[in-house]
Amino acid sequence: MVTSYQLDVNELSEDIINSIKAAFKNKTIKITVSDVFDETEYLLATQANRDSLELSMKQIEEGKVVTFTVEELQAKYGK
User: Fold this and answer.
1) Which structural domain range is residue 40 located in?
2) Which string of b and e fits 34-49 if b means at least 16 CB within 10 Å?
């Protein structure tokens, strides 16, 4: 079983530890702690990425988009 918890560090409590213990009773577990990855921050981290995203948004606003149905995508790229 895999369970993922995402919470603010200030929300850590004994209740959370107890719920983990109850969920994985008599099991060996692995706990990994990491900060939440901010995808927007990552995408805007370089000037090249910002320029590319801004161009894409401009093209959408101008109606310069290509649309496909699911069936067309499957036919073109396979399942």
Assistant:
1) 9-77
2) eeeeeeeeeeeeeeee
